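Q: My labmate handed me this sequence with no annotations at all. I'd like to see what the chain might look like in three dimensions before we decide whether it's worth expressing. Could you predict it?
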Amino acid sequence: MTEQRADKASGIYIHIPFCRSKCKYCAFVSTPDLSLQHAYVKTLLREISSCTNGGAADSVYIGGGTPSCLYNGALEDILRSVHSAFGIGRDAEITVECNPESVTADFIYECKNCGVNRISLGMQSSDDAVLKKIGRAHDFACYKRAIDMLSRHFDNISTDIIIGLPGQTAEDMDRSISVASDHCSHISVYALSVEDGTPLFSEGYRTADDDIADMYDRALPLLERYGFERYEVSNFAKKGRQSRHNNKYWNCEPYFGFGAAAHGYDGEYIRYSHSDDICSYISDPSVRMTVLSEKDLYNEYVMLRLRTSKGIDIVDFRKRFGYCFRDRNSAILTRLAQENSIVMTETGISISPDRMFVMNGIIEELMTD
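A: Here is what I predict for the chain of 369 residues:
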């Protein structure tokens, strides 16, 4: 395991690759074979406890998969191990993902008992017919019961909504945002990506880019009306509730990754990854290191920072790379500004708000071959 930069508190990501059933669009590393849970957690605890030079961490994110379908006591064991290996600050953000059907009184009690202070709950859609088409294990009534239970115990809850789902309507999305806004301080609105190898791809379903763009544009004023501010293309938060975990990725800050398919970054030149085969991880949790070139670092920085509403910070860029971003890209930036594709200020460069959803082509112009 690589050591992280000592001058910055790290983030921690822990992957739980278990689900009671697999959604038809899911391309993440996960399995419905729950018989592997005990062996997996045992390896996970061993890997975390071996990280003797972890240092300070101010965010822990347990994702998946579906962490809420773990056996009772697993989350407590995992977080106890994290606290033993790292200096977890009192104000650390500790998030656990869950699905509505696995939100129980026991799950909530365990989360509260081991210091979890943020929950990410998957809704995806408020239409039962759509949920059935994509293989979700819950219906909308189940989501409403779960969010009501969670909101009695947590004041920092995020909900995921997907746009571009088969059979989805604008009214479905409006209802999803409205109900989530009653309880949540953070909402993620993701465009569906139909990956080769998923059941949805095999069934022949493909998204319509124009329809997704229209739905996204419809979501923006609705989210704003409910008090959510966009801080990344797909993520919206009420004041003070941006995801610390997400921001570490987009700001190129250091984070540890534990578990099958998990990745980590030392904040400088080293990225590492685990095997995406769950059984292989259980047998050998070692990581594969990648040394990033200057070109890699530059391209990642540009790609990740321009996804955010703040964009590229001129001072931070110079500290990292030793030269001025504007000087390197003067001609391209001038043209993009004239086209209203970007906004340039004294302190930063960002994608124009009305171009955020079509940012990929703009970003590519500023990356290097």
